[in-house]
Amino acid sequence: MQIIEEISKNRINKSASGSILQKICLDKLQLNPLPNHKSEIWRMANKSKLARFLDYKINHDFYKPNIPYENESQKVIRLIIGDHKKINIKEQEWEIKELDDQKILNLIQHKLLESDSTQNWSALLNHLLTNEKNICGLNIKGRNLPHLEIITNSKNNLFNSRTLIINIEKNTEVEISQINLGDDNSSLSNSSYLYLEEDSQVNHGIVSYGKYKSHLINSLNVFQKKNSVYNLGSLQFKFDFGRLEININQIEGNAKTNIKGMQITQDNEQISTYAKIAFNGPNGFLDQLNKSLARDRSHSVFEGLIVVPRIAQKTDASQLSRNLLLSNYAKIDTKPQLEIIADDVKCMHGATISQLNENELFYMRSRGLTLEQASKLQLRSYYQEIISFLPISKERWDLLALLLKNK
Amino acid sequence: MKSKKETKKPLLEIHDLFASTENLTILKGVNISINPGEIHAIMGRNGCGKSTLSKIIAGHPSYEITGGKIKLSGTDIEPLEPEERAQSGIFLGFQYPIEIPGVSNLEFLRVATNARRKFLKKEELDTFEFEDLVKEKLEIVKMEPTFLNRSINQGFSGGEKKRNEILQMALLEPKIAILDETDSGLDIDALRIVASGIKKIANENCGIILITHYQRLLDEIKPDFVHVMANGKIIKTGNSELALELEKNGYEWTDKFIDKT
Q1: Which residues span the domain enclosing A172?
Q2: Fewer CB near the last or first residue (10 Å), C or N of chain A?
Q3: Which residues of B touch A358 (CB under 8 A)?
């Protein structure tokens, strides 16, 4: 594991301007360079795949990704992290400008200082290995903004690290899609921070898809102030090792979070989603659905945790995990959990694991559809629920076609 | 002198059919022959094997044929998959049509219709051509075009589901249509719409099997033959008068026809 060796031997380049953050991360990681496999959020992680993730040479250079869909339009602003494109746009109703280094430091320093190398190992590693060229910080305000499409990508035989920090000002409404593209035999580490001020709304889509032996760790940290609405749709597929860590903090309660996510695994892949939603005030709302579909000898993991302390009275939270197991050799681990101290709350969680519905298949076959056509239609309906929640238009990214083509 | 119907070759022949599921024998020697243009009613107590017979003809994978033959136009259909049977012209109208969330009714009907058309060596229909066809067929079952944009049977009332089945029958133009308790759960008006739809679709080239418990469907669609099933076989066959006798005397009256051996 090249990267761990470099951390342990203190050979990581600390000369970049983000060195305050890097120093914090390095100190923490030198104590525990690898995640603790006994901890809840790492016990399912495949050790050899994690080792492979850490076994590429660190790359700070930009390589333009091969993007199959149309470029920027009037309705869409496309950013590729690392390509040095500056963005400072001010229109009548809205404004997007880059955050300066000090503001970035202010936003994430406290988060990193209180991070520990078990719960936040992915974020610590990301900040340690991301140089300033690969950090994108944005401040967004206003309404009727164009869709913001942010792309991160890896290059084959290299370890690539990107960080995204977005501050969403009061009363702002914005749609953001993040596309993480994994190259053959590569690793991509991505950390995102979204700060939602009061009365703001973000419709956020994260789509991650790789190629042959792509590896990804994507950590997402969302901080919601009161009366904010955060909608997240996520989709992960085609990663030999893929991991999405969602941390949502309703700082003052009185906020709404809706999450619909899906991960699809095949061959020998392992894809996981960890979601921790913490309510730190009353009247918080969560509606979360995580779907997975596992084929061949693959492994899909979902671990969810809803934390409702005493202060979070009248919380209304639901976390469901629905899974399709399409092979006798595939494996699905799912564990939605509640940690409730407040006594006046409405919380539910649940999980199902099933196979394609035999009655539905027979019904379609009895009308002349082949087993393949019927299965495809069933899968299409399974996928559609999540895809329709993503704020990404079919014209720009035909995700359904990608998924149906996948296998 | 033989009637015109009798000179035709049977569309569906079921000969000494035995079938089981999960090691339980359900059909124990069913014999039936259906000629083009004929309407047969199958009646019998709950659990006598009527629905099982319909599913076995349609090729439900949970059932195994352990003896006998089913032939469609002289060809043994046992080796055929359910979709091949449907493409060949067998249609099963479900007692409980399945809801499939997220799958558009229109898309499903188009794929199904084209699968049948392909088998019949007819040109497949593109989206626009199919919309014209389906709108024409919708009138048969008095359905609004908005049904097409919904997911298959999702949120449909009982009557709407049954009408959707008859719409599918109209589109697929089957050789043999087996309608399993199509009348169950229908109010009088819906029953009339469904019955009228079936009569419009029925023609001299198509055979129909109506599985039912009630005379009221047979008041609307007069069958040529009525069969009574008990214990996995047909124990009595007659004309439409037999259904009236059943209505009057109940199934106990037919017990005397059960072969106790």
Answers
A1: 2-251
A2: C
A3: 61-62
